[in-house]
Amino acid sequence: MSYPLPEAAFHTVPRPEEPIRFVVYGDVRSGHAAHAELVEAILDEAPDFVVSTGDMVLSGSDEGDWQRFFQVAAGLLARIPTYPVIGNHDVGTAGDQHHLRRFEDIFALWPGPADRPEGAAWYGFDVAAVHFVMLDSNRYDDERQLLWLEADLAAARAAGARAIFAATHHGPWARGPHGGSAVAAERYAPVLARAGVAALFSGHDHFYQRGRVGGLTYVVFGGGGAPLYQPRCGVAGKRACRKDGAQLVTAEHHHVALEVHHDYVKMCPRRPDGTLVEECTTLSLAR
To answer: 103: which DSSP letter?
Structure first.
């Protein structure tokens, strides 16, 4: 027996010389009510596509978690292309039958490099001459990923990409209880900075943090619905933070809309009700 599908509409991507608009959010986990509000807010943005910074579910080995995620996000996924990175919760819980399940069993990912091992989830894609590198932070120690990253960035520059962005789950810097990833800061961030990456998006700590280190702008987008974290340093009554170039840290559910123009990027973080978390910021694409 077949069932009729609900009607849905979509739009094609802009041409390479035109502005593009995309949204980034992450760390939904079990925060379904906040996630549902964000889905409606993201649809109101009418982006060309969406990037997820991972941890879409609490346990990737629980099929019910995925069913609930897709139930809440159905209206978005039916109309807007979505490109995810894999989070630590997305692979499941150690000891479960489906622990370390393959991300490609859940999502039809963009084709990965030929030598990417089974279960790994790093890949790249292009939209309107803008290039994205999507990292698997659960496998930072796999040298094949780092070699791929360097080659992929070089190819994007050689092809004339007008902007390059990177996304990962465990970012190099964060003032939450997890803190930043040392291997991301020491080995991956310098590669991204040398390639002139416009911004690195991450999640894992459940708040919004924007900063700049070593010529690399980074933003933690961890407010997709999971319980919010308070900063563990740099605020009254807590220790000073290590040098992380942070310009703003705030614990709020949010998504971020980005517009890529010829020589700049406009970035606007918004709460579920549409109000701004901070005034929109501008990133230069001058090289």
So the answer is: G
